[in-house]
Structures are given as C-alpha cells and as structure tokens.
Amino acid sequence: MLQYAVRRVAWLIPTLLAMALVTFIIMHATPGSPLDPAAPNANPLSPELQRNLAEKYGLDKPLYVQFWTFLKNVVRLDFGFSYMFKTRTVSEIIAGTFPISLQLGIMAFVFAAIGGVTLGTLAAVHQNSWIDYLCVILATMGVSLPNFVTGILLILLFALTLGLFPVSGWDSPRNWVLPTLTLGLPELGIVARYTRASVLEVVRADFARTARAKGVAERKVVTRHVLKNALIPIVTYLGPLLAAIGTGSFFVEFIYSIPGMGKFFVQSMSGRDYNMIMAVILLYGGFLGLMNLVVDLAYGLLDPRIKYG
Amino acid sequence: MRETLAPLPRAAAVPHGLTVPRSHRQAGYWRDALRRLKRNKLAVVGAVLVALIMLVAAGADILAPYPYAKASFSHSYESPSARYPLGTDPLGRDLLSRMIYGARISMIVGVGSQALVLLIGVPVGAFAGYYGGKLDMYLMRAVDVMYAFPTLLFVILIMSALGAGLFNIFLAIGVTGWVTLCRLTRGQFIALREQEYVMGARALGATSWQVIVRHLLPNALAPIIVAITFGVPRAIFTEAALSFIGVGINPPLPSWGGMVGEYQQYLRSYWYMATFPAVAIGLTMLSFSFLGDGLRDALDPTLRR
Amino acid sequence: MTNWTKDPKQVEMFRERSEAVGMSRRDFMRILGAAAAGSTVLTAVGGLSTPEIASAAGAPPVPDAEQVLRSPYNTEPSSHDFNKDLYCGGETELFAGLTRFDPNNNTVPYVADRWETKAKGQIYTFYLHKGVKWTNGDPVTAHDFEWSFKRQLDPATQAPYAAFLFDLQNGEAFNTKKPGITRDNVGVKALDDYTLQMTLESPRGYFPILMAYYSALPAHRPSVEKWGDKWTEAEHIVTNGPWKLTSWEHNKQMIFERYDAFMLKPKPRLRKRISRIIAGEAALPAYEANEMDRFGSGETVPLAEVKRLKADPKLSKEMHIFSLTGTFYLAPAYSQKPFDVRGVRLALAHAIDRDAIVKSVLQGIGQPAYTFVPPDSPGYLDPKKYSWVHELTAYNPKLAMAQLAGTPYEGGKNWPKVTLSFRSDELAGVPGQVAQAIQAMVKENLNLSIDLEGLEGRVFRGRMWEHKIQLNYVRWYMDYPDPNDNLFLVWYSSRTGGSRHEYKDAEFDKMVDQAAAAPTWDQRMALYAKAEQRMLEDGAAVYVYYPFGVRLYKPWVQGMPMNSAGLPAEDWNIYPGVPNVLYIADAPGRPKLS
CB of A94 within 8 A of CB of A279? Predict the structure, then answer.
C-alpha cells in the first residue's frame, strides 16, 4: 500500500507538468494582454508602452523560453509576481488567501459528510418519515439550485430578515456559518441520498439479518454492522465532493465577501494574470490529486477486499 | 458549482464505473429494458418531462407569444400579468417567450455539449480499451492529465480563450467533459473484449471494426446512455455558472442558465425574473436524474434488488 | 493687508491666474466680487474650502473618538503608488499634490500656495506652503515633486501613464529614450526648497489642472529607494496627505487614520476609516445589515435594486445619485461596410431613442447624451444653446430613414452583417442591456439587424485600438475637467502610439491643437465646440447617455460636499475629497465604533 501511495504521488509530477503545459498554451492563445491595467475604469495602454512593459517582464521572448523560465522558477515554488497586483508575488497572495479557502472548504466538507451520513442513515432507518422527506427535499434542492442562488436566499432569510448572522466578512465564527451552509448544504443533500440508498441495501443483507437473529439490538445493528459496510460506496463520492466544494468556493466567497482564494479563479483569468492562472490551476489540480489519493487509500482501509496493484 | 453529479451508486457497485457485462440478446434486451423502465413511476415522470421540454424547445416558434428579442420600452420591468404571464425584463421583453426560447438554447447547450462528449469520449475510450497495450497507455496518460484539471476552472480558461457565445460554451464543456465518458467506455471494452461471444466473433473472422461496432459497442451502450443523461443537466448548470461570471452566451439569445445568472441580482426587486428560469433548471435537473436513475436500473437488471 | 482688488495690477494677475486654472468668466467675476467684499478666501491656507464645509445645517458631530467610518473598497489595490501607476486602485487622499480640485471641479491651491506663469504660460512657478510634512517628519519640498515627476517620466520606472506629464519640456523625449536627453533636460526644477519651476513644451492653459490630478501626486523618495515596489505597504509607507495608512490586510481591509500633523485644509473630521474590500454588488446586503456606513465605490450602479431602493422609505433617503462625468457612445468603423457611408452614420444618430434607454433600461440613473462633454464639466454643449446638436443627433425615426436616401441601403434594405461589440465584464451587465436596447431600436427604425458580441475588457480594448470593431459601444470617463480630455485623448487622429478610433480628420485635429494653445478660456471653449460640431456632422460618433452612479450613506454620515449646482460631489474620477469632509453625527441605530 505504501508503494502504491508513493507511485501515485510520483505520477502526480508529470501530470502537473502536462497540466502546466496545456494551461500555458491556452493562456497564451487567449487574446488580451496581462499588461493592460486591471482597474475597471482605466484607459488602455498605448501599443508602444505595451512593448516596453513586455520587454521588462520577458513577455517578448519566444513561448518555449518563457515556459522554460517558468519551469525553472516553479521548482523553487516561485510562481513570480502577479500582473494584477504588481507589487506582490503570487506566493504572497496565495499564502494570505489559501488558508481561508481551505478552512471554509474543510468546514463545508465535514458538515456535508457528517451531516449527510447522519441524515441519510436516519432516513433509511425511518423510511417514509419526515426525516426521510427532509432528506429527499435537501437532495433535490442540492442538485437543482446553483449555489449563488442558495447563497442569496440564505442571506435574505438568516441575515436580513432574522438578523441571526452577519452578511460579510470572515473575522468571527458567526461569519463562518452561512458560507459553510451555502457551500455544504447541497452536498449534504447528495451525501444523504447516497447514504440512504446504501444503508437500505445493507440493512437487508444477510449479515445484518444474522446479527438481528442473534438478538443484537437494532441500534447496534445499524451502528456496528450496517454503517461500516454502507460507508464504502459513499467514500467513492468524497473525491467529487471535494472538487465540488473546492470550485464552489468562488461563488460563496464572492457572495459573502470572504477574503479567500476563490476570487482569483475568475479574476486571474479575466485579468490575464499569467502567473496567477498557472498557480491557481496547479495548486487546485495538485490538491485534488492528493485528496483523491487519500480517498482511494481510505477506501482500502474500509474495504479489505480492495487490493492496490 | 457542482462539478459532478454521478448516478447514485448501489452498495454492490464496483467503484470507477465498472459494471459487470453480459452478452445481451439485442432486441429482447432492449424490449425488457423498456418494460422495466415503464414500471418505474419516477422514471416515467422524468421521461415525460424531458419529452415535454424537448417539445417546447422544438416548438418555441409556435408556442412563444412574442419574439424573444422583441423589446417594448414602455413595458419594462413589469410584474406577471395577463398580458405577460411571467412579467417582463428591463427591456420590456416578454419573459414567458424568453423562457420558451430559453428551453431551446438550454437544450442545445446540454445536448450539443453531450454530443461532443460522445463523439470524442466514446471512440477514444473504445480504441484504448479494445487495442490495449501502448496505445491504451498513451491515451490514458493524456486522459489522466485532463481528468486532473479542476473542471470548472478549465471551462472558464477555455471560455476566456474563445470568448462568450453559444457555440463556444458547448465546445468548452465538450472538450472538458469527454474524459469521464472515455474512461467509462474503456472500462466496458476491457471487460467485454475477453467475453466468449467476442472471442467467438473474432474466431469466425470478423474484422476489428466489425467486432467493435457490432458486438462491443451495443453492449457497452447502457452505461454510456446513463452517463449522457446525467451530462445534459450538468451542462445546463455549468452554463448558468458561466453566465454568473459573465462569459455566457451573447445577448439577446435567452437561455435558462443565462437568465438565472443575469437576473439573480434582481431577486429582491423583481423576484419573478430569476425564479422561473431557476425552477425550470431545477425541473430539468430532476427529470433527467429520474430518467437516468430509471435507465440505469432498467438497463442493468443485475443491479436491481 | 489692503484689499488687493483695488489694485489693477493685482486684479490683472488674478485674472491671469484664474484663466490659467480654467475658471469661467462668470466664476471669475463672482470670486472677484467676493474678494472685493473683504473675503480672504484665496489667502487661506489650502485655498477655496467653503463649499466643502458648508453643511452647517447637519447634526452636531459625535466625539472625536467615535468619528469612525466603515466604507467599502470595490477591489484590492495593487499599491498606493500613484506616482508610478495612475490606476493602482489605491487611496488618493494619502497624498497631497501641488493643487487639488474642489467640489465644482475647479483647481485650487494645495501644497502649492500659489503659482505664477511666464512666457505666456509656458513656464510655471509653484510656491510651496512651508511646514507641510511627510508622516515621518520630513518636510515636503519642491525637490520631492521634481524627483517624483522625473521618476514617473524615467523610462526605467516603466510608469504606464507617464504620457500624462508629456507637457513638460523634454518629458516625452526622456520617457521614450531619445538620444542625448537625460533626466536633467526635463523641464522641472526645484529652484529652492519651496519653489518649483516647470517649463512646458509650449504654452498650456490647463497645466495647473493637470497638477491637481492624481497622476501628479508625489512619492516619498527615501521610502521608494529603500523598499522599492513594496514602499506602499502599511509597514513602510510614508505619505504627505490628510490620511495615514495604518493597516492593510491584503484582500480584506485597510485602515486609514487621520494624519493629525496635516496642516493644509480641509483637515479630516473623521478620525478613522475602516475600508473593507467588498466587491460591488455584495456590499449592498452588508450595508443593509448595518455592517457598512456606505454603499458604493467606483461606478457601482445597482440597477437591479433601484426600484426597491427608491420605494423603501428608509433607503430612499439614504441614496445619493451623482454624475460619473463620462459618456457612453457608439463609434462606427469608417473602413467597414455599411459605416463607410456618411448617411448611415448619421441615420444611426437619429435612430436611437436615448430618452427610452435612460427611462426604461437605466431607470433614470443617467442622462441622455447628444454630445461628448458631460453637463457637469466645463465645455458642455447644451442642445438648447447649440441648435445644431439636435439637428444632427435628435431621435427621429423618419429623419433616420431619410438619411439613407441615396445610399445603397435606401429604405433599410441590402444591409450587410453588422456586429456591435461591448464590454461584458463591467457595471454588472448594464452595457449589455443598453446594447440590446440599441439593437432593438436600430432594427425597428432602420430595419438593420445587428449581432451583439460581449467582450472582456482586455480583449475589447485590444480590438478597439487595432480598429477591429465594426460598431463599438464604449464609454469614456473624464480624467480631468477639460474638453481636451475628451477630444484629444479620444478623437485626435495624429497621435503617436495609435488612436482609439478610426475617425481621421486633419481639420478636426487642427481645431483641437488650436484650442489647446488658445490664449483665453472663451476662445478655447469656442474651438472645442467647433471641433465637436465638425465631428458630429460627419457622424463619427453617436453619444448615448451620461452615466450616473449611486451611493448610500447611513443617516449618521454627514457633511456630504455639494457642488454649486446643489448636487452631491461624489468621489469619482476628478474630485476625490469626500472622506476629508464627512463626519459622524448622532442618529438612531448608529453603532459606537472606535
């Protein structure tokens, strides 16, 4: 298993390299220059000034030279400066914003995973009860509402009408509630639906019947025997769940004015901030790759039948 | 925004979309599947709704009371009324008509992008799976790279390269979405190619082409259909996200995603503008999910309880 | 001191000065009258400050400790280094320039108490106020300005907007690395610590106005030399304006505190400003939840919320609407069919119902435009006074169709494919909506079907400067209140480094040249008016509307400066001084902050 993990991590490196190359090519094929001012009301630079600045930043060199320079620097984790925030490096910006997005992501993930499994199990055990219906409703909303709409609805209800939580910012735990809900709730619905289906299957399985026949209490049957087996297929969804939460943070951070990294997803691309685009894609790609590995390993721990070849 | 809306797994399902194949007696198999599908009430509801949406999309020219771009400045920002059942937008355009035409555009985005996904993903997956060896290895390495991209970020990247526009949207979604289908097809082919009936066909002198088209593809079709069913609403969702960011389709073409993305800011002043298209997207999402769930159950009898 | 208005020489000197700052004859007479009546306004440190502190009617301010304002910042600034990058997005009020604008967009003394001109306005001498200090205690001297202007022009600095100082003699030559020209040849020199002399390429009447613009703000030399690009970080920055930057958590918030040793006027009444970085639309719920004292920055127009805001008894009172001092317009490409035909261009001008656009689409947040210079800027051409304006551009579908007579498109037939391009990524989609309205009107009135194409700002600008846009829907926000800003920067065709639009007319260029060099204000304005008329006669542009912006202030925020027209003078491109005069008064619901 260790060998498998090492091989997967090693494979990540050429994958990231290829991603970098693809991104680099598309980025440079995109019309528009990173040298133009980012301010919305700014007037554009004259072509002459563009040439001068391009020379300064090495953008006048052939593309393969630029890519080689990028590779040489990125080995030292140096993504260069940000074209949009010219006085700062990409690493500085990421160091300040990524931890916030990570925190939001982890909270939403834990909320969705634990809440979803709990709700799904309860729904399966009490089929056709109000909990079961709640599970269906949440899952339905989750798949059918974009989270920028969910976000606005939650602000209207909890912040402006009830005044329970603040609308914007990230300073206190009270700030964390609505964004976590917005990001996690739809995923919670889906996890709950998966769990419900999975638990229903296992509840009827032979080993559960045997346990019941032996006189084990129903609660124990569910917690000890059923849940452990039912969780296995749910783990397969955790990878996509992470991806959804990762990219979903853009919308949530925008709506709640959270100083996280999400805004750079779009800002870096519309700003043609070449260095930032590379960093954002590689960081998220690498992060998701690692997380998928963790999920796969967790899968093996839960289900001893899986062999890593 | 949701990246993946996979079909619900069953407890017995093997991860990574590998289903256990069988040789299907073609005609009988499809007839059985249809019968099983008809018995599933949710799936029937889903199928009827999907058919309805398709009909509205096709008949928009007859159904819509006004042309979708017809502006009437003296009637801008009107609430739902007898004349404008869903109200009007800032240019005084009839929102009902825009919803009806929006069905067409949204379906073009959904179905068009999935057609592209199908056209790239299935052949690549089929060749990799059938021939195996070096070809498979190289193709799968490329697929792995594509798979590692955070999908929405990649779509935005491509959209900024291509610019806004209907055609560009399904190009971007198609180019990023094919890898999942490719992996699925490949898995199916690997499992199927060692089956007795395939070996038999080969022994009888069938060419590779014949084997692929006549024997492998039809048997691999079921999970592909299911995946496509889930792909259509996902593409509509992605389009909504792109509209929110501002790289959606070009006006004055209406699409549901575009309407939600554009009008979500009006939610507090003019609730009806974003609400109806959001409901439409939700319904589409649900009907395709029901249909997809039903199709999977119907096409794969071993997975049924 | 005897009343200087009695001295003909003094009056003549003052007239010369006011002409130099572009003051209208009426304003000149008014100020002269006020001075004759014994007012000493102009000798006060910091100059004309009456309109800014005029709101005596407001409630009394709360104690100084509670003078805290929470206002949003639309985007994270890249720095506060205006001396290097005009569009850095930072806080202008950290710095004080030689002159500044008052709420009426007039140029008034600031760090410079006064200035003189020689050689018909080719040489300017600015006399700096003594005792003004940087926040680290260094005196603010003429050497600071000399160094800063040369830094901006130095090609090694790569300041993107250095062209702003090309009026300085050899400024352009130095910036573009002309052989034999060094920084010593640039026409700016500190004669002593408090006298700055600037020699221009030729007489330039508007020069003091340029000195009030934030491109002419200084930088602190020792800090720049020590910290390089990082000198405007909160822990390094040294400034000379009414505010200090005391904290800057990137992407989150900045805190500005009043610089107590600031000795020019107006001195801020607020003690502290907490500026959270919140993107435009997201700030409105935060404002309504009382997490902000103010909504709106930059050109935010919450069109989607206008109806609700206007209908709400509380919010409607908190709303300010103000001019953004800009113009949205259509520019057809002369080299592309069908706009190579003059009749088509003129027909376009008559086919667009500006009133409907402003009333329906913009819900009144704007004003119909027929000419380029907006009404709140000097040089505005009122259609009531200039009959040719409506003759050339008024909405009239019949006249529009009539313009096509004799062209290949007579009767609205034979149209080629036409694409209108606009920016899709600004103002929450408003340009796209107006473009759709234009599309519908042109179809209705000229039977011309146009395709719309929304482009990102960068792509849009690139194509615009390459003249690749067939029908361009674009805006111009004024940089400084002078028609030169519109007519020269936008339409002048013989510029080095390319032109914004395809329009090319030697006669027009000549008029703009003459206007810039004209000796008196009236002569200049007359020439600019003639230039605008010439351009419209050829149908070079169709002006659509003058955009307005929206702000909301909580009832405890008081002291909003008003201009002479009785409108709030917001912090937009030209006049940035709002935070210097606002104050907090007591009102129900006010959170106690410190």
Answer: yes
- Contacting residues for C539 by C-beta, under 8 A, at least 6 apart: C332, C342, C344, C345, C346, C348, C349
CA distance B54 to B75: 30
**Looking at this protein, which amino acid is placed at residue A53?**
L
Phi, psi of C190 (to 5 degrees): -85, 110
* pLDDT for B7 beyond 50: no
pLDDT digit string, tens, across residues B45-103: 999 999 999 999 999 999 999 998 888 888 888 889 999 999 998 888 999 999 999 99
The secondary structure of residue C56, as a DSSP letter, is T
Tell me whether residues B161 and A198 touch, CB distance under 8 A.
no
Tell me the ipTM for this assembly.
0.84
Q: What angle do CA A285, A289, A290 make, to 5 degrees?
A: 120
Sequence ranges of chain C with CATH classification 3.10.105.10: 326-547
Any C CB within 8 A of B79 CB: no
Partner residue opposite A201 with nearest CB, options B4, B11, B260: B11
Count of C-beta atoms within a 10 Å radius of residue A228 = 12
Query: Three-class SS of residue C309?
Result: helix
Q: Is any Cβ of chain C less than 8 angstroms from the Cβ of A303?
A: no
Block means of pLDDT (10 residues each) for chain C, length 594 residues? 46 46 42 40 33 53 93 89 89 94 83 89 92 95 97 90 86 91 94 95 79 91 95 96 95 94 92 90 86 82 84 89 89 94 95 93 91 89 91 93 93 93 82 92 93 83 87 87 84 77 92 86 90 94 93 90 74 78 90 84
Residue ranges matching CATH 3.90.76.10 in chain C:
7-55+74-230
Q: Global pTM? A: 0.81
Distance CA C438, CA A195 (A): 53
Q: Where do the DSSP E strands lie in C310-352?
A: 319-323, 326-332
Q: A267-281 burial, b if ≥16 CB within 10 A, otherwise e?
A: bbbbbbbbbbbbbbb
Contacting chains of C (3 CB pairs or more, <8 Å) are: A, B
| Cα separation, C340 vs C408, whole angstroms | 11
Which parts of B59-195 fold into alpha helices (H)? Answer: 60-63, 95-131, 133-148, 151-162, 166-193
Domain at C326-547: CATH architecture: Roll (3.10)
CB C365 within 8 A of CB C303: yes
Q: How many CA atoms lie within 13 A of B195 on its CB side?
A: 21
Query: Does CATH number 3.40.50.720 belong to domain C7-55+74-230?
Result: no
Q: Which of A25, A138, A144 to mutate to test binding with chain B, by most B CBs within 10 Å of its CB?
A: A144
Return the axis-axis angle of helices B271-299 and B26-39, rounded to nearest 10°: 130
- Packed helices A63-75 and A2-29: angle between N→C axes, nearest 10 degrees: 140
- Of the pLDDT bands very low, low, confident and very high (cuts 50, 70, 90), residue B247 is confident
For residues B37, B40, B41, B46, the Cα torsion angle rounded to the nearest 10 degrees is -50
Ramachandran region, residue B91 (left: φ > 0; alpha: ψ -120 to 50; beta: rest): alpha
Using alpha carbons, list the distances in angstroms from residue C569 to C300, C366, C393, C514, C578.
16, 16, 30, 32, 8
Cβ separation C160–A47 shorter than 8 A: no
**Is A198–B11 a contact, with Cβ atoms under 8 angstroms apart?**
yes
From its phi and psi, is residue C327 left (phi > 0), alpha (psi between -120 and 50) or beta?
A: beta
Contact C307 B246 (CB under 8 A): no
CA C124 and chain centroid, separation? 23
Q: Which of A140, A146, A250 sits opposite B286 (nearest CB)?
A: A140
Beta-carbon contacts of B169 under 8 Å, excluding residues fewer than 6 positions away, are: B109, B113, B159, B239, B242, B248, B249
> What confidence tens digit (pLDDT) does each residue in B183-233 have?
888 888 888 887 888 888 888 888 888 888 888 888 888 888 888 888 888
Give the pair of three-digit tokens for residue B72.
């009437």
